[in-house]
Amino acid sequence: MPNPLPRPADRPGGTDPDRDPWWDNTRFVSAALIVVLHTTGSIMSRHESLGVFHVATWAFRVPVFVVLAGVFSSAAPLGPRRTRTLLRSIVLPALVFSLLFSLEQYALGGPWKLYVAQLPWTLWFLMSLFFWRLLLPLVVQLRHPLLITTAVALAVGYVNEFGLTFSASRTLVYLPLFYFGWRLGQGLLRDWFTARWSLPVAVAGLIGSGAVGLLWHARVKGTWLSMRHAYVADTPLGMGGAWLVRLLVLASAAGLVVCLLRVMPKRRLPLISVLGSGGFTVYLLHPLVILPLREKGLIERADTRWELAGLLLFAVALTVVLASPPVRRLVRPLTRPPVDRLLFAPLPAPAGPSAGPSAGPSAGPSVERPAVPPARSASDALSKRLEKRSASHHNDSDREPTYG
User: Fold this and answer.
1) What is the rounded distance in angstroms from the CA atom of residue 9 to the CA atom of residue 20?
2) Burial letters for 360-369: b for 16+ Cβ neighbours within 10 Å, e otherwise?
3) What is the C-alpha separation between 121 and 263, in angstroms, rounded?
4) Could you give the count of Cα atoms lying within 13 Å of 63 in the half-sphere of its Cβ?
5) pLDDT tens digits, residue range 71-90?
6) DSSP state, 129?
7) 369-389 tens-digit pLDDT
8) What predicted TM-score, i.e. pTM, was given to this entire model?
9) CA 184, CA 324: separation in Å to the nearest integer?
10) How far apart are CA 132 and CA 153, in angstroms?
């Protein structure tokens, strides 16, 4: 198997020298696109340009989140530490922000509703991420994981019982992209990310995505991209060919994600790389800011081009503020509730030969690295950097969730 790509340890300060800025740069772009869409989504039907944006950038929003979540996931069997990490970093924040959403919705004059089986707005991703990480150790045992998960993703559209409850539909439909992301983290397509010939191809792919949004955004149905419900007969091929449309959408998403990663700068960018490490906080907080603006009709007032441009600038500025280290430190008790002593029993001390410094929670397995000759060109240097894996990047990579 090819050497894995570097996967930085996620820390709230965003200044860890072990972080690879490549991923953080991608995170910021994806987070900003998500916030822009959620800010303008309620007025999209009034502005054709927003419809173009929605279709042209779809693959760079949710699919990128899913793929990057797979990159930073572990396929190792769940043990006590990884199990409680899933609960601490995914389940607890989901419950906390679901409650905050309910309280805010009630304060804005809506009915009181406590969300349990169907989390509100963007929190479906947390529920799906929880199940993806539970399923990954099982999926990798299959003979043809990508083929089987894709077949399930296509078939589930014909089963009405799979919908929004427990995010069942999205969990299964996006599972191939999640597994694809894990394979990227294991070194799949390493040559693509270093070869000179792949850069113009990736640029052409991004231009093609923009062209599709510009020319055919009105023909792309929202149901093709949402993945939330069973198929409806809204395709030129009818119900019998609905799976072909989904297959095309998923394949295009995977291709466009690797195109975005190829053109994304791999060096540290001023401000962007630091902000990109705060994608988790942006993802959780931005709906709480946008909801009152939408419910009070402030977003609806954006009608002219200048007002729409101002709304877009506001969305980008909101991303910057929420991703900033001070905000992340301020809300850390919400994004990572400090309840370990309250909820979890102490882990048993390691015994036997494994006891000692190497058995501690932050120690990773020893990785045998092949000898790499000195880099002779920029491409060789990048290849060498992709092969590098810090000792802190151990298999228990779930200690901080990654959302692009």
Assistant:
1) 9
2) eeeeeeeeee
3) 31
4) 25
5) 999 999 888 888 988 999 99
6) H
7) 334 444 444 445 444 544 443
8) 0.84
9) 28
10) 13
